[in-house]
Every structure is written in structure tokens, then in C-alpha cells.
Design a protein that fits this description.
- By secondary structure, the chain is of the alpha+beta class.
- The chain has helices at about 20-30, 35-45, 50-60, 85-95, 100-105, 110-120, 130-145, 150-160, 285-320, 335-360, 365-400, 410-415, 420, 425-440, 440-455, 460-475, 485-500, 505-515, 530-540, and strands spanning about 65-70, 75-80, 180, 200, 205-215, 225-230, 235-240, 250-255, 265-280, 325, 330.
- It is globular and about 75 Å long.
- The structure holds flavin-adenine dinucleotide.
């Protein structure tokens, strides 16, 4: 019996992930990176190949291992990865996911890179952790370039290199550098003020760190930016893995986390035993220094979740096109159409949101865009990351039993889905940040409302939603427990404003009619009669 007789769809591979995604192509052009089309087309082709899907599967099946000692008992603290991990890192670094906008600061560079990152997230996610952290560390390192001589001479040039180099060597002997971040300790991650790791200043101006980090991802990176308590208070430090003479820094890897998902990537618990570090910025200014890195990683969390959402949608559409039940393909069954259409809406919204937000991170962003990002970043990060697990569960169900077995990519994607919401500020923490910005930064509120104003008159439901949102944002009674409600309203208003202006009309209308309806229950597949058909027709049914 061949696959067709068995009613089993062909594998979802050998397709160009960029050119099959009309929403992403439109967003890239709209948000300022039409010049990136050829590059993204090539990247979409590479990522969608059967070879890349196989690498992604392999890198997650054969998870990294910690090797603490060599054969004669010396401490080595090395991580051994499957070759598939290294191949994926080679591809992504060649693409410049960790550095492109810092290398070529042309208009649209952040948007182009966001699209490349989103496409990558459709296929594999663990490799995106070191890429994101390296990308986000560079602006901090540039700002504090005078912290120590080797930073400008050796580290920064290597952070811009696209030539992946996994070797454990002193940085001067390497072709490129990767960075990580160490903030979370056992007693608290969201509240970093509770950090206990101590930093003692040495006679030469460097520091020695003593303490631990409870989550320390990508421990094989060449350096980490970490927080520790110095005499002047919580401070940010640059902690290299190896010292210039090749000796391992005094960072002991206790163990690797046994994680729900993100299994291709290593996340460690580490102990600092008088580890050598340089101070970045002033003592006591650790949070303001590292927050620039955190802000950029929050954008990536949202893009990563938008990629997961789109990847799951594309696979679900593909399956439903080929799989038949009760004499017809699933995609022709009215109730399945309703479900698929609803998933299309979620993906369109997520893609539009993250690409718009990426534009606000451009080097030439206006003051208004920067104010907009202050409020939109936590709101979009909260909402898109929060939608991913629900969306992934629904997409998985489109496959029936096949979605529940490991040979399909869906279980891996499903396990990955909650992570971006926890990382870099969990859901509630993001919503509290939204409230803080709303209360303290009137320019951010004005920028958001002015952005929403561009869609005025396009949809009556959206107009009413925005009017109520504007009143709520200025309501002095707005309290912490309202945080999730207001953040969701901001994100859905922004998504709706983008879709009614730029997506096919059926999509904008269906999004407003469902997501802005006070009676919206959250379950997928409950669009009103006709909206599902029209949504699918607007984008074509097949992936
Ligand atoms: C796979 C993985 C890799 C990671 N890698 C790294 C890394 O490389 N570097 C690093 O520094 N960290 C890393 N982390 C840690 C991550 O950033 C933290 O887990 C996260 O910031 C939350 O901190 P916590 O776990 O201590 O939870 P807590 O801070 O204890 O928070 C628990 C819950 O309480 C909520 N909460 C907190 N404060 C409030 C409040 N005031 N009001 C209402 N609710 C609140 C949070 O939203 C969360 O849901 C990683 C985590 C994971 C899962």
C-alpha cells in the first residue's frame, strides 16, 4: 500500500517557507525591507528542504551531553552536541541571524532579520537561543566598548563574524564569538534584585564572581553577560568562558536541565568559584545595562512564537489538504474550515505584530516608534507567546493521531511552545511592565494610540475597542490584576489595526469579529458562519 492508498499525506518538506507565506512576504515589504526578498527566498528554500527538517529532528533527538571531566580526571566542563546542531548553527550564522543589522545598518535591517528568524523558528528552535543572545548582547557591548581593551579589539569583531566556530579556544584564536546571559538564580528569576552572586573587585580593576546561576543557557558560549552584587549594588559583568591564556574560567557546570522542550539546546546550572569578569557600566547599574539586551531578546521571543505558529499552521493546512475523511479532504469539511481559518487569523496577526514591532527597533527608528516599542514590546511578547501553546495544540489536533507521535514535528513544536512566554519575563511580568509603561510614560500611550488611529474608520468594532482601550489606559484605577486584560486588548487592537489596513478584507473583518467580540471564548473554530470560508479563500487553502 503506498501513501496515497493509505490516505497519508506526503511529507511537508521540499517547499520554500518564504514564498508560500503571503502574509510574511507582504509584511517584509510593508515594514521596510523589500530589498531582502531574494535573500529571504533563498533562506526559505534552505529551511524548507528535507535536509534541514532532518537536521532539526536529529538535533533534538540526540540532545547535548555534559562532559565534566577528561579521561584523567581533569575538569573540562564541555558540552557535546550532535553534528546536526553544528550544521544548523553554521547555516543560521551564515545567514546572519545573530548579527545582520549590526553589520549593515540599512533601513529595514531589523525587519529582514526578523523575517529570517521567524522562518528559522518554523523548523528548529533550540539553536535560536545562542543566536538571540549573541544578537542582543552586541548593542550592550558596543555601548560599553571601553570596559576593557580586548572588547573592541577582539570580541566585538568576532561577534559580527558569520563563520561559526564551536571550538573551545581563547577568543583571539577563534573566528567568531557567541554570547549568553546569566541572571536567574535559584531564589528568583523575575526579581533579579534578589541575586546573591557576589562580585569582588581585584587590584587590576577586574572582578571575581562567587555564587551560582540556576538557568544558564548555551554554557558553551564564549562569554556571558551576568548580574552579580558588587560593593555598589547589582552590576552587570562580562564573563568569558576561557581566559586569554586558554585556562578555563572558574565556572563549574553542575548539570544540564532536563527540559520539556528546547532539547537541542543546552541549559545549565553553574557555580562561579571566584570566576574572572569585567564590569560593564557602573557598579549598581546592572539592570539598566542588561535591560537593553533583555528588550531585544523579548522581541525575539515574540518572533520565535510567531514562527512556531506559522510553522504549525503551514503543516496543518498541508495535512488537511491531503487527508480525507467521510469521502472528502478535511480542508473541504465546513467545521474543519472554520478551525483552519481561525488558525490562519492567529498566524496572520502574530506575523503582522512582530514585523511591525521589529520596525520599531530599527537603527533609524523615530522617537515615536521608540516610545511605541516601550509599550508594544511587552504587550506583543505577552500575547503572541501566550497564544502559541493553544494554537499549537489545535494545529496538532488537525493531524488526529499522527500529530501525537514523534515522527511528525508537531510534538516537538508543542513542547517548545510555552518556553518563549517564560523566558525573558514571564507572562505576568510582561503585563506588569505594560502597566508600568502605561502609568509612567505618557509618550508611549500617545504613540500606541496614534498608531491605532491610522486604522480609524476601517472597522466599527475596532473603533469601539480602541476607544475603550484609550479610556482604560488612562483610568487611574487600572491595577495590577488588570494587567493581562489590558495587555491582551493592546495586542489584539494592534493586530486588528494592521490586518484591517493591510490583509485581505476577509481576514481583517474575521479577526475583528472574533478577537474583539466581548463574547470571544478563545477556542479555535468558532468563527461566525461564512467567515471561515472567506478567510481561507483570501489566502488559498493549501500551505
Ligand atoms: C529553558 C530555559 C532556559 C533559560 N535560560 C536562561 C538563561 O540563559 N539565563 C537566565 O538568566 N535565565 C534563563 N532562564 C530562566 C528564565 O528567564 C526564568 O525562569 C524566568 O525569568 C522566570 O523566573 P523564575 O523561574 O525564577 O520564576 P519566578 O520569578 O519565581 O516567577 C514564577 C511565576 O510568578 C510570576 N510572577 C513573578 N512576579 C510576579 C508578580 N509581581 N506578580 C504576579 N506574578 C508574578 C511569573 O510571571 C511566573 O509565572 C531559562 C528558563 C528556561 C525555562
Amino acid at each position: 500500500m503506498n501513501n496515497a492508498d493509505a490516505n497519508q499525506p506526503p511529507a511537508f518538506e521540499g517547499r520554500n517557507l518564504f514564498t508560500i507565506d503571503a502574509a510574511l512576504q507582504a509584511a517584509v515589504a510593508r515594514e521596510g525591507a523589500p530589498w531582502a526578498r531574494d535573500r529571504l527566498t533563498a533562506w526559505g528554500e534552505r529551511l524548507g528542504s528535507s535536509e534541514t527538517f532532518a537536521l532539526a529532528s536529529r538535533a533534538n533527538r540526540f540532545a547535548p551531553e555534559l562532559h565534566t571531566h577528561d579521561r584523567v580526571g581533569n575538569r573540562i566542563d564541555e558540552i557535546a552536541f550532535d553534528p546536526a546542531w553544528h550544521e544548523l548553527m553554521t547555516l543560521a550564522m551564515r545567514e546572519g541571524e545573530h548579527c545582520a543589522p549590526w553589520q549593515e545598518s540599512r533601513a529595514g535591517a531589523q525587519v529582514a532579520r526578523a523575517a529570517a528568524y521567524l522562518l528559522h523558528a518554523e523548523v528548529e528552535n533550540g539553536t535560536q537561543c545562542p543566536l538571540t543572545m549573541t544578537f542582543a548582547a552586541v548593542p550592550v557591548l558596543r555601548r560599553h566598548a571601553r570596559a576593557f581593551a580586548a572588547l573592541t579589539e577582539t570580541w566585538l569583531p568576532r561577534s559580527l563574524s558569520r563563520d561559526y566556530d564551536a571550538r573551545s579556544l581563547p577568543i583571539a584564536a577563534k573566528r567568531s564569538a557567541l554570547f549568553g546571559m546569566g541572571m536567574t538564580e535559584r531564589q528568583g528569576g523575575s526579581d533579579v534584585r534578589a541575586n546573591l552572586t557576589r562580585a569582588e573587585r581585584a587590584a587590576d580593576g577586574s572582578y571575581r564572581l562567587t555564587g551560582h546561576k540556576w538557568f544558564f543557557s548555551a554554557p558553551m558560549s564564549d562569554a556571558h553577560l551576568v548580574l552579580a552584587q558588587a560593593a555598589g549594588g547589582l552590576s552587570c559583568f562580562f564573563l568569558p568562558r576561557l581566559l586569554p591564556d586558554g585556562v578555563r574560567n572558574a565556572v563549574r557546570i553542575e548539570r544540564l536541565k532536563d527540559k520539556l522542550g528546547n532539547r537541542s539546546n543546552a541549559s545549565a546550572e553553574v557555580v562561579f568559584e571566584g570566576a574572572f569578569a569585567w564590569l560593564l557600566g557602573d557598579e549598581g547599574r546592572g539592570v539598566p545595562v542588561i535591560i537593553e539586551m533583555v528588550q531585544q531578546t523579548r522581541l525575539d521571543c515574540a518572533i520565535g512564537s510567531a514562527g512556531l505558529i506559522r510553522g504549525a499552521l503551514a503543516q496543518a493546512l498541508h495535512h488537511a489538504t491531503y487527508r480525507r475523511a467521510f469521502g472528502r479532504p478535511l480542508v473541504e469539511q465546513p467545521l474543519m474550515q472554520n478551525v483552519l481559518a481561525d488558525l490562519v487569523l492567529e498566524s496572520e496577526a502574530a506575523t503582522a505584530l512582530v514585523l511591525r514591532l521589529a520596525r520599531a527597533f530599527e537603527a533609524d527608528a523615530t522617537e515615536r516608534d521608540t516610545a511605541f516599542a516601550r509599550l508594544a514590546t511587552p504587550a506583543v511578547k505577552y500575547w503572541v507567546c501566550k497564544r502559541a501553546p493553544a494554537m499549537l495544540a489545535e494545529a496538532l489536533e488537525v493531524f488526529g493521531g499522527n500529530g501525537y507521535v514523534e515522527e511528525s514535528a508537531l510534538p516537538r513544536m508543542y513542547r517548545e511552545a510555552p518556553l518563549n512566554s517564560i523566558w525573558e519575563g514571564a507572562g505576568n511580568v510582561m503585563c506588569l511592565d505594560v502597566l508600568r509603561a502605561a502609568r509612567r510614560e505618557p509618550a508611549a500611550v500617545e504613540a500606541l494610540l496614534s498608531e491605532l488611529g491610522t486604522a480609524r474608520g476601517a472597522n466599527a468594532g475596532l473603533d469601539a475597542h480602541v476607544a475603550a482601550l484609550a479610556a482604560a489606559l488612562r483610568d487611574p484605577k487600572l491595577g495590577e490584576s488588570d494587567g493581562r486584560r489590558i495587555s491582551a486588548r493592546i495586542a489584539t487592537a494592534l493586530a486588528a489595526a494592521l490586518l484591517v489596513q493591510h490583509a485581505p478584507p476577509a481576514i481583517g473583518e474575521a479577526y475583528c469579529a472574533s478577537r474583539l467580540d466581548p463574547a470571544y471564548a478563545g477556542a479555535f473554530g468558532a468563527l461566525s458562519a461564512g467567515a471561515g470560508e472567506a478567510t481561507l479563500r483570501a489566502r488559498g487553502r493549501a500551505a
